[in-house]
Specification:
- The complex is a heterodimer of chains A (204) and B (272).
- Chain A is mostly helical and 204 residues long.
- Helices cover 83% and strands 0% of the residues of chain A.
- Chain A contains eight helices and no strands.
- Chain A is globular, with a radius of gyration of 17 Å.
- Chain B has a five-stranded mixed sheet, covered by helices on one side.
- With 272 residues, chain B is of the alpha+beta class.
- Classes of the chains: A mainly alpha (204), B alpha+beta (272).
- The interface between A and B is medium-sized, with 28 and 21 residues.
Chain lengths: 204, 272
């Protein structure tokens, strides 16, 4: 995460607005992880922080897709999705999964929406009749990484609470899987940010 | 559901989604590549088709001009020569100085017409342009304009002239001719400057005048086909043609030909 944040900040002035949002998301994620670490040390819980961060994360992801998908950009659909998603998340936090429990239902919904937006972004890329070189299109790889992360973690959020309640510490495998997937995703982001100028010039 | 089934189900589900992600990405890459290849092929076909049409059109124009040139040279010029000879005979029969003077003047006019026809016939004839080369052809054309229209015309050659493909030189000359024609007919210019710049990478022909100028955004709305012809010829030889003009401030026409990577098409040892 530190590596991805560093790469994104290093390339920040050369990024387009959508990539800048993604860079902001990675940096926010990094700051959140540090804060979560200290909260866990001091108060032995950081779930509330993760819950609040999940809203910020979803809002930034929606903003990112709003910039990348042409149809979303025209009608600001991304902003509506963000509004609906976060509203449902707040309802979930207030009435179902409070701040002291992991908001897995909201994360499940977030996964669904992010996967949906990613697939729609791919669909739009395929529909575009210009000679877009996907190998050298940064947003293709960004969205691939996002899709990879949310697809793999999708089931985790659905069964996270259940598995932890039933299996306890023997369910540590989920955490390890999530960590490995996170590392792979952030490495992908970092590489794309590093190669960003080359990729951009190839598609101009 | 038994707890023992949850973990395998969870792992299988996650693996399935991972596989789905990878296949989707791979499919997208392959499909987009295919789409791009198809687009390239389609554009190439359209480009080739347009180029063929353009080629036929330009060839037809050249043939017509050659025929007119031949007709002017072989038929009208010889008839006028015969008329001039007859006038000389009549001059010998003149009974007074006034008659002789009038016949002399008429002879002079016929002589001028023959001279003009000679020049027009040469400038229309592509073989003649091929033989004498681009720079000499333009110089000849400018000399004619200088003489007949009393216009200040100059030509400056920068760099070592590179022998371009004779066909390319004809197209460049036709563009130059069209600009000269526009300048003479519509611009009311008193000065016309040509700059031919040769470098290893490119050839640039810049033509500027001090005439009336025009709104460059309306060139395709104009009635004549002159500009369209110039742009088409420039495209045909793989160059770019730019027009810069402001009303009452003259105009500049620039033809740029990229010679790098296009050498076999544009460079030829047998021209000029």
């Amino acid at each position: 995460m530190l590596f991805a944040s560093f790469c994104s900040v290093f390339r920040f002035h050369r990024l387009d607005s959508a990539s800048k949002i993604l860079s902001l998301l990675i940096c926010c994620g990094f700051v959140n992880e540090i804060a979560a670490y200290f909260l866990a040390k001091m108060y032995h819980t950081n779930i509330a922080l993760y819950t609040i961060y999940s809203f910020i994360e979803f809002a930034l992801l929606c903003l990112y897709f709003n910039k990348v998908i042409d149809v979303f950009k025209k009608k600001d659909i991304g902003l509506y999705i963000a509004f609906i998603g976060i509203s449902l998340g707040i309802v979930n936090t207030v009435y179902i999964q409070h701040l002291n429990t992991l908001n897995s239902y909201y994360l499940l919904l977030e996964s669904l929406l992010v996967i949906g937006m990613s697939l729609f972004a791919f669909f739009r890329m395929l529909l575009k009749h210009d000679s877009l070189n996907l190998y050298k299109y940064p947003h293709f790889w960004f969205i691939s990484a996002i899709l990879f992360f949310w697809n793999i973690t999708f089931l985790s959020w659905g069964v996270y609470n259940y598995i932890y309640q039933k299996l306890g510490k023997s369910a540590q495998g989920i955490n390890i899987t999530l960590m490995v997937v996170s590392i792979a995703t952030y490495c992908c982001f970092a590489i794309v940010f590093l190669l960003y100028p080359k990729m951009k010039s190839a598609n101009e | 559901m038994n707890d023992q089934y949850i973990i395998p189900l969870f792992v299988a589900g996650s693996l399935l989604l991972t596989l789905f992600t990878f296949f989707l990405i791979a499919y997208l890459l392959v499909q987009k590549n295919k789409q791009n290849a198809y687009q390239v092929e389609k554009h190439k076909m359209i480009f080739d088709h347009e180029k063929n049409i353009l080629k036929a059109k330009i060839e037809e124009q050249e043939n017509t001009m050659d025929q007119i040139s031949k007709e002017l040279h072989d038929n009208i010029k010889s008839v006028l020569g015969f008329a001039q000879m007859t006038m000389y005979n009549i001059a010998a029969l003149a009974t007074n100085a006034e008659q002789a003077d009038l016949i002399d003047k008429t002879n002079g006019i016929i002589g001028d017409v023959i001279e003009n026809l000679h020049n027009i016939s040469h400038s229309l004839n592509s073989n003649f342009i091929r033989n004498i080369g681009l720079i000499d052809s333009i110089e000849k054309e400018l000399a004619h304009v200088r003489l007949s229209k009393k216009m200040n015309c100059s030509i400056e050659v920068i760099g070592d002239p590179i022998a371009l493909n004779p066909e390319t030189e004809i197209h460049i000359f036709r563009i130059a001719q069209e600009v000269i024609q526009n300048c003479v007919k519509h611009a009311n210019a008193t000065t016309l400057n040509f700059t031919l710049e040769y470098t290893a990478a490119r050839f640039v022909m810049k033509i500027s005048d001090n005439g009336n100028g025009f709104d460059k955004n309306k060139i395709f709305a104009m009635k004549g086909l002159g500009f369209l012809n110039m742009f088409q010829r420039a495209r045909y030889v793989g160059g770019t043609f730019e027009v810069d003009s402001t009303p009452a401030e003259g105009s500049t026409h620039t033809l740029t030909l990229n010679l790098e990577g296009n050498g076999t098409n544009n460079k030829s040892s047998d021209s000029r």
